[in-house]
Amino acid sequence: MSALVSVLSSRLFDASGSTLDPELRSATKPEFGHYQSNLALRLANQLGQPPREVAARLVAALKVDDLCEPPAIAGPGFINLTVRSDVLAAAVNARTAFAPRGERVVVDYSQPNVAKQMHVGHLRSTVIGDSVCNVLQYVGYEVIRQNHVGDWGTQYGMMIEQLLEEGLDAETLDLQGLQKLYERSRRHFDSDSAFADLARLRVVALQTGDPATRANWQHMVDVSLADFEQVYARLGSALTRDDVVGESAYNDDLPVIVAELEQDGLLTESDGASCAFLPGYVGRDGLPLPVIVRKSDGGFGYSATDLAAIRHRVQDLDAQRIVYVVDHRQALHFEMIFALSRAASWLPSTTTAEHVSFGTVLGPGGKPFKTRDGGTVKLTTLLDEAVERADKILEERGVADRTEIAQAVGIGAVKYSDLSSDRDNDYVFDLDRMVAMSGNTGPYLQYAHARLTRLLSNAGEPSGAVTLLDHPVEQRLALLLTGFDDTVVQVAETLQPHRLCTYLYELAAALSVFYEQCPVLKSEGETRASRINLCAATRQVLQDGLGLLGIAAPDAM
RNA sequence: GCGCCAGUAGCUCAGCUGGAUAGAGCGUCGGACUUCUAAUCCGUUGGUCGCAGGUUCGAGUCCUGCCUGGCGCGCCA
Fold first, then answer.
1. For residue A57, pLDDT beyond 50
2. Which of A164, A263, A311, A506 could bridge to A346 as Cys pair (CB 3.0-4.6 Å)?
3. Could you tell me the pTM of the whole model?
């Protein structure tokens, strides 16, 4: 919480003589001042007295003359506060970093699959996950990123068996070759039971560590990870190979998971599979719904891997908070995994587990995103198109040296569009709207930042402090600046990056109004110096905010 | 059948966890550029917050029941 808001809150708290939350909120309209409190309405209800009388007593007891203009009572009993402009100026100048909070959070995101190109489906997890990590880090968490790559299971047995049968050398296959190999092996597996048996044996060889099988598998993993890294670099994601802890990493833990569940009496044999039945979960037929830990063929399903991952993250990584950035279709799965982990005591009450779910990216017309022939659209293709659009617009503007800027604007537009509305909603991937330079878009924010950069480079060295805030538009801008940390804290709690987007958009809009109405370089004396510093503070917040979203802020565009 | 999520202006979306006359952008129409970058700003137009009850000083927000759409519900992840 910003110093200003917390001080005002505690003053209200002291004046009320009650334990009620002062409910200090931003004023809904400029004519209501800067902040409002609804405390009098609450108190009046509790005391059975007229709200305006309670408000009057509250205002009389309230000591804020060192911070605010005289408080006003309005409407049914709202208390409106207007911060003194010198206090506001001081608050703008007083930005401080968050202290480390001594808590560790594990964020599981991106999760592409080995031997498959990354597609739109991976965009959201990667973009939201990066942003969530940045925000958590900013407010003082120690963040551990975990890329739970899909690199284990029957499909790799299939693929290796197919590879051997065709006499191919794994070394010659790139990612696209692997994807084709997968498709061939899938068809073969489905149509030839003898091959299917061989493939299953190959899975056993893989899981028990047969050297030749492992070597082929390792090659597939290496090729895939190298490709993912290129996409991450393109996206500006912070993910590296060090963050990859794929499903295979838990192979040795899976029997232990089963043993511990058995020991706790949580496992039941059902149709040959080892299942955990949790109270309250019923399936389509009204029958109890299991978590299948070990399949009837003796293999382990993804539930076992997810359980092992939780166990590892608590016991070895010492996580106080675990976050899963995974699409909303897996909501039930995670609910059950979390419940079972609690029952098995892998997830103690001191550790929270959250599923940060998100909606689907849809193609044109709100239909599933597919190419004309029904294939999946590669993520890199979409990014190329976005950069191309950005480049065209920059060209029309006569911008020189466009290559890097077009990257920043195109990729930034895609990422911003992904982050700017509530994660739970589906959205249509519409490049025209994303790259639009007006409205709540990435380019609009980047433009505000670039404008300020230009202005500041013409202004000379900023002298440091904001000292004057005479114009209402300056005050509006300053007030917004003091709200940055509160907004980021909210995002760290709710894990909803769109709140930060909304904030930054309002800030950029307020800046544009200021820019229209308040000359900076053409003004003189203290006004000029103060406005330059207000611009510098705004630029810093825009830069920090875009940084938290994982979006580049070019100096010119 | 059960569960999760969503339904707010013609379109795309906010709405700060129950507060004042529900806000932006796009679109429409009209205005402001020898610019501190007009990729901007100002004005205009636009809503039965899916429907019906309930809770209370006060509901887009909370509770119940419906309607519509998306998704999920035993060995894929």
1. yes
2. A311
3. 0.96
CATH assignment of A104-145+246-356, given 3.40.50.620, 3.40.50.720, 3.90.180.10, 2.60.40.10? 3.40.50.620
CA of A476 to C1' of B15 (A): 19
The CB-side HSE value for A213 (13 A sphere, CA atoms) comes to 21
Above pLDDT 70, what percent of chain A? 100
For residue range A413-468, list pLDDT tens digits in order.
999 999 999 999 999 999 989 998 889 999 999 999 999 999 999 998 777 899 99
Rounded to the nearest 5°, which phi and psi values hold at A329? -65, -20
ipTM: 0.96
Alpha carbon A102 to chain centroid, angstroms: 21
Please give the structure tokens belonging to residue A464.
């440091």
The answer, yes or no, to whether residue A11 has pLDDT greater than 80, is yes
Tokens standing for residue A268: 């039941």
DSSP A289-344: EEEEEE-TTS-B-HHHHHHHHHHHHHHTT--SEEEEE--GGGHHHHHHHHHHHHHT
In which band, very low, low, confident or very high, does the pLDDT at A2 lie, cut at 50, 70 and 90?
low
CA-to-CA separations, A534 to A8, A456, A464, in angstroms, rounded: 23, 10, 9
Residue A255 has pLDDT above 90, yes or no: yes
Q: Domain ranges for chain A, please list them.
A: 3-83, 104-145+246-356, 154-241, 373-435, 442-549
A539 touches strand B (CB under 7 A): no
Task: Please state, rounded to an integer, the average pLDDT across all residues of chain A.
Answer: 94
A41 sits within 7 Å of strand B by its CB: yes
CB proximity A332–strand B (7 Å threshold): yes
Provide the CA A437 to C1' B40 distance, Å, integer. 10
Q: Is the pLDDT of residue A224 over 80?
A: yes
Nucleotides of B under 7 A from a protein CB: 1-6, 12-17, 19-20, 24-27, 36-42, 56-58, 70-77
CATH number of A3-83: 3.30.1360.70
What mean pLDDT comes out for the span A236-257?
A: 97
The domain A442-549 having CATH identifier 3.10.180.10: the answer here is no
